[in-house]
Amino acid sequence: MPKEFGRSARVSSQMQKELALILQRDIDDSRLGFITINEVIVSKDLAAAKIYFTVLNSDDLGKKNHIKWLNELAPMIRHLLAKKMQLRHISELKFLYDDSFDTGMRVSELLSDVNKEIPAENNENETQ
User: Which of 54, 56, 70, 123 could be joined to 34 by an S-S link, Cβ 3.0–4.6 Å?
Assistant: First the structure.
């Protein structure tokens, strides 16, 4: 029976914590805004890691720029990560923007618009 919380999941969790600290404390790049690491997915062999992040108050161009900048900084971030994690090999890092928050906000806006329209329609039906 497979373990519920295998090695790759433990490494992903620890990597997420360490990356958040590295981006907050160790990276001095004025181009980068407030970045949140949402999820880290590490391959079974720990060779590659996909890092999903969001940026506070950023438009589409800003999101694309952050992806580019973080992937340019990936070798340096990987080096800093290697110092903090006790692994023989550190995964290749690939940064990807996580648009689930933006999608959730859009769905929330649509639902609130629908809720505003429904009472207006109910009032019209009651008066007829």
Answer: 56
In a domain, 72, yes or no: yes
Helix (H) or strand (E) holding 38: strand 35-42
Q: How far is CA 77 from CA 53, 92, 128, in A?
A: 14, 10, 66
Residue 77 φ/ψ region, left for φ over 0, alpha for ψ in the -120 to 50 degree band, beta for the rest: alpha
Instruction: Name the β-bridge partners of 97.
Output: 53
For the chain, what is the domain count?
2
Q: What percent of the chain has pLDDT over 90?
A: 43
- Residue 22 to residue 49: CA distance in whole angstroms: 16
Q: Give dist(CA 7, CA 14) in Å, integer.
A: 11
Over residues 66-91, the pLDDT tens digits come to 999 999 999 999 999 999 998 888 99
Q: Say yes or no: 74 and 12 in one domain.
A: yes
Q: What is the CATH number of the domain that holds 75?
A: 3.30.300.20
- Residue 2, domain member (yes or no): no
Name the pTM for this structure: 0.77
